[in-house]
């Protein structure tokens, strides 16, 4: 395999040929300090990745391909992890949703709509006072209280990526910092990561001109990083949860099983694009006696990945009622599936740590 082969980049080749983002060192020193503080406090730490990565088509970028994700899954889950006592490294796509502020997203619940200018007693607005509309106060108070207490406790560390290259470099570097916590670390990979990219060496320097007819681009495959993440970066010590997004629900379980079989991590959460807010499936291996050190599990035969009553894998569905109307922005009181996803993961992580003892 060489870098001139258009379809195959190993993770090692990728990092040897693609440049790191300029702020990597600075970003990682922030993570190092954060992890050291949490280690001192004895907290578990979860890395939450969130939002979609882009693939720029030019070095002076005007055009890029994007991956679908608003960041809802990641931002919402981060809040529930914080509530459960975890410290959170929230690695998200720049300008995608973030914990707490997500409740007041400019497009679905713009905050200016529930602020009022309070007239003074004599009917003038001098000096002007701004207050929150009465029916929004309780909800805002709850969100603000949680937000302030997380800030005071310094248990949330945020960092951003834009391109798939930023994402891969950051993921590797953050993982290498977090792995000092061993089994107390969790990796919750909810970001929607590009499968194809243009190596820097093949990119046009300037804006691609449109006067030459149709555009043909050959992209290389982004290396699958879960395997090195499990085996090398975390040395098998981290509790790793990946997501599988499909639009054909029938593919969810077999694809999730295949990912577990290939990468050897702990859980794949399958979600169907249109049902993801009220239904997900946890796929994991049934407990097996540990293999001797250095022995890799045999790859499974194809039919085991499809078998409805598998002897190797177990599926757990999490469902919440499908909302019948859109949430009331004044109360924001809807059940969120991330509450149950995180509760289940916290239980499993705890059990995993206990079993290791
Ligand atoms: O933010 P929302 O709008 O709420 O949407 C949430 C979501 C649907 C995006 C989220 O729940 C989700 O499914 N995220 C993962 C989507 C995705 O990238 O799936 P995938 O099939 O491309 O990748 C599967 C897994 O492999 C991912 O966990 C990824 O971290 C990992 N991967 C991906 C690419 C790559 N080169 N190496 C990897 O290891």
From TrEMBL:
Residues 44-99, 157-276 form the DNA/pantothenate metabolism flavoprotein C-terminal domain. GO terms for molecular function: catalytic activity. It comes from the Eukaryota. InterPro entries: CoaB-like_sf (IPR035929), DNA/pantothenate-metab_flavo_C (IPR007085). Residues 1-10 have a biased composition (Polar residues). Residues 1-21 are annotated as: Disordered. SUPFAM superfamilies: CoaB-like. One of its GO terms (biological process) is coenzyme A biosynthetic process. PANTHER family: CORNICHON-RELATED. Belongs to the PPC synthetase family. This is DNA/pantothenate metabolism flavoprotein C-terminal domain-containing protein. The lineage of its organism: Eukaryota, Fungi, Dikarya, Basidiomycota, Agaricomycotina.
